[in-house]
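User: Now give one protein:

AI:
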Amino acid sequence: MPKGGKPRMFRFNLYWMYGLIFMMLIALYMTNDTSASKELGWTEFQKLAQENAFDKMTVYNKKNLVEATVKSEKVGQIFGNANISQIGTSPKVYVKIPSADKFSDFYDKAVAENQIDTQVRFEEGDDALWNFLVSFGPIILLIAVWLFLMRRMSGGTGAGPGSVFSVGKAKAQLFDKDNDQKVTFKDVAGLAEAKQEVEEIVSFLKNPEKYTELGGKIPKGALLVGPPGTGKTLLAKAVAGEANVPFFSLSGSDLVVMFVGVGASRVRDLFRQAKEKAPCIVFIDEIDAVGRARGKNVNMNSNDERENTLNQLLTEMDGFGSNSGVIILAATNRADILDKALLRAGRFDRQIHVDLPDLNERKEIFGVHLRPIKIDESVDSEFLARQTPGFSGADIANVCNEAALIAARNGKKFVQKEDFMNAVDRIVGGLEKRSRIMTEEERKSIATHEAGHATLSWLLEHANPLVKVTIVPRGKALGAAWYLPEERQITTREQLQDEMCATLGGRAAEELFLGKISTGASNDLERVTKQAYAMVVYFGMSEKLPNLNYYDSSGQDWGFTKPYSEETAKVIDKEVQKIINEQYERAKHILSEHKEGHNQLASVLLEREVIYSEDVEHIFGKRAWLSRSQEILALQEKANKEKAADNDNPQATEEKKDSGFKNDIADKPNEQTA
């Protein structure tokens, strides 16, 4: 029974007609011979054979059966006085024989004694199925191929998936309100501002009168922009789970095909389906596949199918036709390459930035991903959030999964703090390779190099504080150091210089304490060179080229030439070299002043292979500066205490508001006078 409880109505299917025709063909074959037939006994057959009553006989060896055609003058003797139209032109008799050999003996004797002229033919057996296949097999094969092609062309019913006629149909997946959608806003941790934006869209679809009464209009489209793994697609899935309206989901690559006109046809079909289901939401993931800026195709074709698809998308989103009730959500991590016409007001009115999570948001994300994992009391989501700076939501999910796998590999019943730390190390640095053979001199060089990084990062004010240092090879690196980057909104020149100095500490320590340098600093030099060029070319932080920027943030680029002359390029190279040399000499100077501490740190590293920030603190003492993350935590704790105190004493809160209002009034005349 269907959901509504009504009986299913009878529906005619064309394949029933095909089946009926097939059965009629079989019946026609089985009954195509209308001549009469009769089964005789072996004794009666022998008597008739001796009387030369048969024209020809066929012996089937496997069946021990004889089929004999009766002569016309003997028909009345065998079949009686039946009508000739009922008997047919070639009446036959059948008889079971003892064996083919016995029949052969009987036939030879009858020929010798009675001079009969009956023709005899011996066969293995009469297979009706084989005869049918031989007769009708080619016809059946042609019908089957024809049915298959017609089904592929028509898609079974209408023009479904795999159909020749369904090429221009949109391949959007529909999540209706009756679908079981598990993802809701509760499953999306962090992203408070982004959730607020999309929640407003969901609210409008549920209660549009609240907004239209004041004359407002909901945005036609919202673009989710952010780095990979930050939760753009997850946020869209949550919208599908929360909004009690149809939700169409597809990828931008589904609209890009090689056939002319197919992409535009799919866009038209998508919006046609959306209008039929309005109010609804259409989500296009990775829209940069179809929305790339026009006129920049590297193939330079006169007729670019992707541009035709984009033009149709622009027309559907804000053309003469009305798309009331259809809201477009899209996601991309390449907003800089999108066409400007796509981003204008009236199409994608809002750009919702989904950035990498900060400390508090990482804590919330860990809370979501730790729910299905069996953990013990040693696991603290706040500690894990501090140890994973710069991690996206997808990275955090990977950390939790990797920690569970590590715990299971070690036979544990619960996932512990140690497993999470090993998972972070595994993801950031790669797999440990303790089997790699190194000489004692190489180990000493690596320990000196990593100790140089650790020393400078501890002593410099703006360098990232150290978390862990190891000389155990991981991935492609022979040694690794983990730091706790400060989550800054802006970066000063002094902070950049300190970071460069700490990065050059490994090469400086090798030259200063070993008297020779190695290739182990190649990655450090690459990072420092990029930072120095950014300071000169992008940030205008050089003495000879101050306040100049040669970067085009609009994405139009500078064409085929650099935006500066050859003379300026020489100045840039000199400035970059000067900045790097200054920080390198500074690193050597600081390491010379703290030579004993560095050597002690390198010795501990050689002995234990892994050291932590506590070991560095034991050698150099406490760090003189708080990190930004510690400052933020202190401010948050202070704000939480004040909020808790206000909740306990609401009267004091009101008095505080009144006093603040009075102070504002008292300050007004002074501001006006000023």
Summary: Residues 566-593 form the longest helix (28 residues). The radius of gyration is 43 Å. The first strand starts at residue 37 and ends at 40.
